[in-house]
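Translate sequence into structure tokens.
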Amino acid sequence: QVQLVESGGGLVQAGGSLRLSCAASGIIFNFNDMGWYRQAPGNQRELVGSISTIGRTNYKNSVKGRFTISRDNAKNTVYLQMNSLKPEDTAVYYCNAYRGSSYTTLLPWGQGTQVTVSS
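Result follows.
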């Protein structure tokens, strides 16, 4: 059964840090490019950043230099280290596998993890 389980969210003050984790099961993890997405209230889900099977990363402009994505293929887990958090980073964060330059997602969404940044 394919499953994505995100964790690590919480309430943090602006300028603080959080590390999110996403554990994947039911897939050959190391064959999949992975992305972190977020959805704020009233907004569409957006791609925050991605990591390829060989570890190449890309980030949304607004998080460059603050967020870092990494993966541990032995643990079937992808991480999102978030530093210097801003109130506008408040959202539910999700991970998913994707394919292609359009970042087409491949798996059922998990429950996400809530990140709330207070000013």
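Note: The chain has a mean pLDDT of 96.
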